[in-house]
Specification:
155 residues; mainly alpha; two-stranded antiparallel ribbon; 6 helices; 50% helix
């Protein structure tokens, strides 16, 4: 079975802290509390992963709600496994991961996401990521521009 990494538990906690902030600075939302219990046990036992089997039901539901907000697949539609590569140059997944992705559990998918992110060799993390950042920057600049900037004068 796949393990859920502690950084994913942290991300889920932060998601819920933002979504349901504490009204008084002390009280935590139920989702934060149940995920924090899992996190605390991981820290106490010095574990960086927790098995998805046996995950407390409420914590699992809170984690899955966070998971549903993450991108499902790292695919960037440039699949070199279809050309015979063992590992896709576009997304970094192995041929088996690409083939079995729809059947993988959320924890298995997050494990794959973590591995390819840590490797940082796939095109999604370099040349295509740079292009996406450039496009985002241009979009933000256009959104911040006062109306009429760059428009020809009206006669």
């Amino acid at each position: 079975m796949a393990g859920i990494h502690i950084t994913d538990i942290e991300a889920a906690i932060n998601f819920w802290r933002e979504k349901k902030p504490s009204p008084d600075g002390v009280t935590l939302a139920r989702e934060v509390r149940v995920l924090a219990e899992v996190y605390a046990l991981m820290v106490f036992h010095r574990e960086d992963e927790v098995d998805e089997v046996g995950f407390p039901a409420e914590a699992w539901a809170a984690w899955l709600a966070w998971y549903d907000t993450t991108p499902d697949t790292p695919c960037i539609a440039i699949c070199s496994t279809s050309q015979g590569d063992d590992e896709c140059k576009g997304c970094g997944r192995s041929f088996e991961e690409v083939q079995h992705w729809p059947a993988m559990t959320p924890a298995e998918k997050r494990q794959t996401w973590r591995r390819i992110t840590m490797q940082d060799t796939a095109w999604r993390f370099n040349r295509y990521a740079e292009r996406a950042r450039e496009a985002e920057t241009a979009e933000r600049a256009a959104a911040k521009a006062p109306p009429g900037d760059g428009d020809p004068p009206v006669a």
